[in-house]
Amino acid sequence: MYRALILWAIAIFLSSPVIAQEDQMMASISVQLESLVDTYVKESLLKHQFSRDVNDLRLLFGPKAVDSIQLNSALEESAAEMQVIKDDKGVDLQANYLNNFAGSLLEEDGTFYQWRTSAGLNWDLFKGGLISQKHRLAQKKLEYEVMLAEQGSALTDLSYRKSFDYIIYTFNKEKVKVIERRLDVLSNLLEVVEKMYYLRYSHWEDVLNVMSKKAETEIFLRNYRTHLESIQIDSSLKDQQINNLPVFDLLFEEIEKRGIDTMTQSLVLEKNLKALDHQFHWSNNIDLSAQVRYNYYNGGINSQYNARDYVAGGVSVSIPLPFAQSSRKEWKTAKQKKFILDYKSFQEGLDNELLTHYYEYEYTHRQYVQYFYKKEQLAVGINRSIRQRRLADPEYSPMSVVDKLDQIFSVDLELIDIQQKMYLKALKIFSMINAQDILPYIDVKDYNLFVQKYNSDRILFCGGENLLEYEPNFLIEFALQNGIKEICVEAGVSSETYLNYAALLDAAVGTDLTIRFSVDPLKAESTLASDLNSLTSLSLTPKMHISLLSSLAAEPDDYREIIETLTNFRKNFDISISVPLKTKEALFKTLLSIVNKIYVVPERNQELNTEYPALIRRIGPLSAGMIYPVIRPGDFGTKLEMDNFLDQLVMQLRTDSAGIVSLDDLIELDKKIVGWHEEHRF
Q1: Over 90: is that where the pLDDT of 397 sits?
Q2: Three-class SS string for 391-447?
Q3: What is this structure's pTM?
Q4: What three-state secondary structure class fits 53?
Q5: Nearest of 389, 505, 561 to residue 33 by alpha carbon
Q6: Measured between alpha carbons, how far apart are the two ends of the chain, in Å?
Q7: How far is it, in rounded angstroms, from Cα 526 to Cα 522?
Q8: Per-residue pLDDT at 282
Q9: The predicted structure's pLDDT at residue 90
């Protein structure tokens, strides 16, 4: 009786409004978390897209239009000064007046006067005069040429500054996109953890943790938006859309060959050395001037001396004694030596500076790689969780996925910031060598290649029975785990297989898998033309695979109807085809003009080492990028044996793609691995 009462009380408690409200809130939390997962995972945030498009690099690193008004004003001032020197002929007008307030004054020639005046012309011929003017003008012209040379460097510096600001502006726009997405995730996550705290499923520390991240992100977003609104950049640059920011390595050998641009400095050195010749020219030490002067003397009103005037002329010369000539030569030599040593020291300093910038770039590049692999680790964890959800694994937790998504946003910001540092360091290096086009000095990288499990794309060929035997989610996950990039599934043209094929397409949404509809016209009851017409009318898929593996092909005439049908439908479909390795060469050449890819299937895998290369040699250039080998998993004892054979095969044949025929055989190899793990408790 008591037990019945207890059970009755528990039932009432569980059916109470409070419990029902909690159930509703947990359902709401689950929906909210799943929405976040679906939204951001489907945006392919887990896969870092390494662009190999370099067009935007030219826009970022190329020379920028600059305003040279300030630089031209200095040239105008120098040109005006040269014109003044050129117009100065060394002729001066001289005049003086002298009055004796205390009485008459005895002049050196014995003449008494009360006041006197004189006026005349003085013509300097050497030092400070006509001859010196030529050397001063020549020296000024050299200085003007130095300014012209340095103006080029100044324009380069202004262009560098504009590119520097533009790179920061471009990367900050990318950061804002990431920060906005992260803020959206954190805002939703904060709502979730607050609800969970209310339901006592989380602690207040969890709420504070999300709050602090959200507040920090809001500050970041405000700062970057302020920078984008306030930075002074040409409107023509702001309007440009930068879509690709490739990661690249520097080719230091090419940079070293190019060398630092020292043309301006060498020209300045040359002009300075020439200017010394004018500065120390012998005429600058000689004073030679000619004078003509009118003189007038007045003796005063009561003076017994009358007024007197006369014209006088003469020449004055001043030549220094040779005591200082040797020291002046030493002075000139010392100045020349200083100019040369300063130039060499400057050049050596630039070489070391270039090397330092390169090592700093490589250090930053290494940081980028570290964060990239950190992001890959997080992505692998998220992908594992998504697989758990597809397979209805009870250990799946959307909360852990959202937490990893937030971490990925944080890593993304680090990656963008590090890449910005790499771009700015590269810009400095390119400005030092005055590279107008940076492409010869970089190697664009794709780090996705380094995290691939296998060294080639793998194409899996499935039979129609596999669609009936296995769930679509299982097929997709199995393919992803085995590095499959494309599934060619022989669905058969019927309403049942249409539905199965459509379900497989739905399961592949959000993955990198390509699904092809495969038919075998040699086994089908209907004609290939009617099958393709049905697929066209249903608009089910634009990707088609034709299997001709049912019998060995002889001559093109044996497949005339199939070839004609493929020719008529090749505009409607992206067509691949699989044929036996021993297919006649003539049929190969006919098919190459119709389909996009041909997969050749051997009777035994070892035939690929000998007969496949011979086939490629016979067909010649037509086979490039169109014919690919296929292996049979059933010939191998273990999965590791198959993987090693396939890796060596694609390296030997230098192909980027290979096929695997028979899903059942591949599953059997996987079962052997699972059984071995269970046996050895690994």
Answers
A1: no
A2: CCCCCCCHHHHHHHHHHHHHHHHHHHHHHHHHHHHHHHHHHHCCCCCCHHHEEECCH
A3: 0.61
A4: coil
A5: 389
A6: 52
A7: 10
A8: 59
A9: 64
